[in-house]
């Protein structure tokens, strides 16, 4: 009987895996191979003592100096307590009471907390048995899974405090989180260019600084860092991100001079990396912009708020829609232009054919042979069919959806968060197969070890798991 029960439970966790950092990995892909067995039930709800206290509560009404108005809010990195899942633990950081929280993943009860000396605004990262995070106090911390400090390193040039966001914080707050890879922890300090903004690489075992570089060009450093095999990408608030060499800290380039569809600079704190493409936001309209790192230009923009990129499909969410398209969508503008030009040629050929037929009817000489014109017309028809087939093939499915605050891809399901709701949709068809209410806007999603974790702007973390799982 016990063996039979075990066999029933095993499929629920056969692909269980950790979710060790914000949006799962150093690329911020939001993708995990872990599959959850639907339907899910709510296992517990953790209610933080305080709601998040974001550094930036909303977008500026405008930028009169640069004559830009109706700006889209791109400073949304700390509007919820984004959680990570490690083994039997759920961890999150608080911007309200300056603590790192460790919850029991089974019950949601607090196992331990660890205090910093200022708000902790971004999700922690886990690597090599330890947890890493940065605080507005100007320090980077490393603690173990028992909540004991391993090391603490000040990134601020000196221990100088100022008033900020209604708190006393360092003049060089750490607002990039800490991203750890191959034994190196990356972080930034500073948000006031006049005071200096710095990029760091630290030994993840000791906290010793390996290199330190200044973030130049009057740029701040806010939002989750990204890593490729050789480069570090630093979000710069509303400004364009900057690329550095991982080994040396040498600045490679500012991904600047880039313009989105609204003619505004691209940037923001919500970025992701997929192969040779970097996804960022456009300032005014908030469109998603796909930057080619090889060409250093915007090659495609999408009307949406979230995007998941896989080798086979792009999943785009926002503007009341959720849709799946093929990577060939990058060429959709080229196809649309080809369609337009082909239609123009067909219209012109039809006029010529009509004119020659009219000439023949009236006994007038033909100025152009009718046969070749008809052959050209047939070729254009064939070309038009091919172009329209390419356009149609780019679009896999589309449906209405208002839950566009968060999006991740787990196994074969898309999990989306919205106002008071979280849902799951079949990634192959787009059909919604499960939904459940939550308290607040679901801004953060994670799938870890058989559980779906949902973080809201009300300071709640909802945990869902498969029915029958314990």
CATH topology of the largest domain: Methanol Dehydrogenase, Chain A
**Architecture per CATH nomenclature, i.e. the level-2 architecture of the largest domain:** 8 Propeller
CATH superfamily of the largest domain: Quinoprotein alcohol dehydrogenase-like superfamily
Taken from the alpha-carbon principal axes, the silhouette is elongated
Question: How many whole angstroms does the radius of gyration measure?
Answer: 26 Å
- Number of helical segments? 3
Query: How many structural domains?
Result: 2
- The chain-level mean pLDDT equals 88
Low-pLDDT segments, ≥5 res: 1-14
Please state the structural category: mainly beta
- Strand neighbour order, sheet with most strands: 1-31-32-33-34-35-2
Separation of termini? 17 Å
CATH C-level class of the largest domain: Mainly Beta
Main sheet record: 7 strands, mixed
Helix content: 10-25%
Strand content: 35-45%
Q: Count the E strands.
A: 35
């Amino acid at each position: 009987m016990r063996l039979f029960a075990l066999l029933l439970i095993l499929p629920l966790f056969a692909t269980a895996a950790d979710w060790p950092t914000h949006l799962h990995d150093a690329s911020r892909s939001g993708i995990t191979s872990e599959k959850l067995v639907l339907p899910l039930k709510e296992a517990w709800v953790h209610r933080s003592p305080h709601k998040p206290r974001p550094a930036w509560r909303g977008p500026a009404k405008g930028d009169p100096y640069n004559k830009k108005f109706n700006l889209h809010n791109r400073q949304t990195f700390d509007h919820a307590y984004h959680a990570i899942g490690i083994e039997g633990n759920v961890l999150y950081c608080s911007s309200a009471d300056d603590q790192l929280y460790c919850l029991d993943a089974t019950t949601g009860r607090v196992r331990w907390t660890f205090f910093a000396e200022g708000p902790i605004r971004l999700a922690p990262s886990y690597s090599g048995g330890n947890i890493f995070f940065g605080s507005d106090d100007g320090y980077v911390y490393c603690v173990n899974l028992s909540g004991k400090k391993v090391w603490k390193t000040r990134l601020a040039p000196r221990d100088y405090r100022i008033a900020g966001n209604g708190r006393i914080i360092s003049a060089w707050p750490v607002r990039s989180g800490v991203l750890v890879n191959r034994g190196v922890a990356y972080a930034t300090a500073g948000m006031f260019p006049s005071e200096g903004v710095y990029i760091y690489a630290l030994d993840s075992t000791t906290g010793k600084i390996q290199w330190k570089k200044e973030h130049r060009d009057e740029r701040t450093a806010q939002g989750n860092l990204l890593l490729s095999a050789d480069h570090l990408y630093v979000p710069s608030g509303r400004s364009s991100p900057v690329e550095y060499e991982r080994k040396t800290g040498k600045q490679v380039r500012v991904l600047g001079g880039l313009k989105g569809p609204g003619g505004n600079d691209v940037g923001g704190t919500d970025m992701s990396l997929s192969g040779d493409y970097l996804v960022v936001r456009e300032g005014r309209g908030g469109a998603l912009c796909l930057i080619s790192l090889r060409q250093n230009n915007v090659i495609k923009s999408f009307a949406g708020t979230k995007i998941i990129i896989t080798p086979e499909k792009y999943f785009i969410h926002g503007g009341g829609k959720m849709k799946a398209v093929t990577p060939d969508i990058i060429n959709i503008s080229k196809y649309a232009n080809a369609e337009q030009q082909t239609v123009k040629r067909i219209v012109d050929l039809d006029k010529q054919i009509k004119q020659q037929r009219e000439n023949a009817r009236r006994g007038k000489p033909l100025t152009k042979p009718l046969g070749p014109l008809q052959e050209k017309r047939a070729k254009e028809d064939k070309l038009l069919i091919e172009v329209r087939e390419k356009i149609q093939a780019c679009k896999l499915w589309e449906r209405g959806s208002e839950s566009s605050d968060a999006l991740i891809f787990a196994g074969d399901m898309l999990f989306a968060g919205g106002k008071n709701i979280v849902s799951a949709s079949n990634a192959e068809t787009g059909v919604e197969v499960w939904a459940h209410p939550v308290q607040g806007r679901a801004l953060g999603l994670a799938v870890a070890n058989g559980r779906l974790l949902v973080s809201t702007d009300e300071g709640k973390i909802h945990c869902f798991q498969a029915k029958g799982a314990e």
